[in-house]
Amino acid sequence: MVNQLILDLGLPPPTYARSDFVVAPGNREALAWIDRWPDWPAPALALSGPPGSGKTHLGRIWAVQAGAAVIESRELDGKTVADLTALADTWPAIVIENAERTAERALFHLYNLMRECRRSLLLISERPPAHWHIALPDLASRLRAAPAVAVTPPDDELLGSIILKQLADRQLHAGPGVVHYLVSHMERSADAARRVVAALDRRALAEQREIDRRLAADVLAEVSGGAPSQEGGER
Question: What molecular functions are annotated in GO for this chain (predicted)?
Answer without folding.
Answer: DNA replication origin binding
